[in-house]
Amino acid sequence: MSDRIAVAGIDVSPDHFIGGERVASDRTFTDLSPIDEQPLGEIARGGQREADLAVAAAQAAFPAWAALGPAGRAEHLHRLADLIDANVERLARVECVDMAMLLRSLKARLINRGARNYRSYADLAVAYEERVWDSNGTHNRVVRMPSGPAVVITPWNAPFMLSTWKTAPALAAGCTVILKPAEWSPLSCSLLADLTVEAGFPPGVFNVVQGIGEEVGAALVSHPGVRRVSFTGSPETARHIGVAAAQNIVPFTGELGGKGPLLVFEDCDLEAAARKAAGQFDDAGQVCLAGTRLLVQGSIADAFLERFHRFSDEHVLGDPRADDTTVTPLIHRDHFERVAGFVDRARANGDEIVRGGRPAEQGGLFYEPTLVLPRSNESEIVQREVFGPVLTFQTFEDEDHGVALANSTPYGLSGIVYTGSAERAERVGRALRAGVIWVNTFLVRDLTAPFGGIGISGIGREGGDFALDFYSDLKSIQVAEGTTA
Ligand code: NAD
What we know:
The protein has helices at 48-86, 88-99, 103-126, 159-172, 187-198, 213-221, 235-247, 270-278, 301-313, 333-349, 380-383, 399-406, 422-431, 464-470, and strands at 5-7, 10-12, 16-18, 21-23, 28-32, 39-44, 132-135, 138-146, 150-153, 177-180, 206-208, 228-232, 252-255, 260-264, 291-297, 352-355, 370-373, 390-396, 414-418, 436-439, 458-459, 472-480. The protein has 485 residues and is of the alpha/beta class. The protein folds into two domains: 5-256 and 453-476, Aldehyde Dehydrogenase, Chain A, domain 1, CATH 3.40.605.10; 260-439, Aldehyde Dehydrogenase, Chain A, domain 2 (3-Layer(aba) Sandwich).
């Protein structure tokens, strides 16, 4: 076991958490803070050995966890949720330094959402009503069986929220879990492991393995002892993981990247639409659900742009811990280069950069909020996810044209629509090819609703009963009428 490291004044274990114990590795990787690119600590770098240990621990813990039933598991999950609420400040401070997400968003929204995730799935699993009916001379019922150890792989953005979003239904459904957080922001998930101990989780029910995706991540998703693979990250990685899961004939869900349209119709509240569009630069645009393609009806294009620039001028690039900051540094130097590369190629392609388009004067990993007028809808900057503070602006003539542009990329995660017409909201909402649509709002979620993407934005659905079904083996039982006890 390694010494704990102090991050934002809080002690965090750099080790794995396997079978209820902290486990070190021979090798480590350096975790950097995006705020100043300085090291936060040396983190255990797992490989095949750690994957084997974690799967064995999850397998050993599975029968007793499954046998607890939804109500027994819910007691644990509620205790964990209460502990998250009691530790919001600590979790937020560590994640802020590790990922450079805005501290006030973490404190107000994202960490508490972890508690909400555990509570809502615990309650939903308890409330499950088995389908029961009679047909063909038999009495039929559909029951959920916990499926076994589940591997959960999460990305570097909002790591705590996304890891709880995925592990909550797995645990509630009776799976044991091996969580592999992203190597660029591994720390808040290590604190989560500590909280499971405090919450009295039996050893092996919840495991965290740290390390590089292509190393321990690949070893986990291809492990024959695993019964479910749940992934959030890029479509490129999903292709590898999907193949690995398929080799073992294991169900796999992928919540993947997005290139969401933000459609602005001439009948909308233009101030609200332009404010929301400028808000897509928040958190440096490192949000999969962001509406990064601004599609604005031609008749209001000038009026929209005037407002958009006015609201964008209000952004403050700065330290994510400061109250007035709205745009944070990017996560890592490699990602910064990737974002800058997209904009440089757009410029070379003849796309017009009308705002930003350069590393910001703040230096470090700050990139200017950028607006691009693409030369064509086929431009790379329109068709590929940048995952940074870079938006494109295009106009459309009428509703059909707007919808056609919105649906013209290989992605289909989310869509945002601004309109004053309920009829249009209904028509466009149905016509958009995406898994989540918001009309005159953004990011509001009911956790029982299905969540996921279309096209290269995802496979499968999480959220509510959809997630609980994914982590269960559904079984139908037919009993002949007249069977007596
Ligand atoms: P990524 O695909 O590079 O990595 C995600 C995770 O996969 C990391 O933990 C990484 O270590 C691991 N990994 C990498 N290669 C692996 C392999 N061969 N086997 C197993 N694991 C492997 O993604 P990222 O850069 O961390 O995250 C950004 C992406 O995630 C963006 O595309 C973003 O849109 C997407 N995202 C989607 C959602 C959603 O809900 N749909 C939410 C957040 C982020």
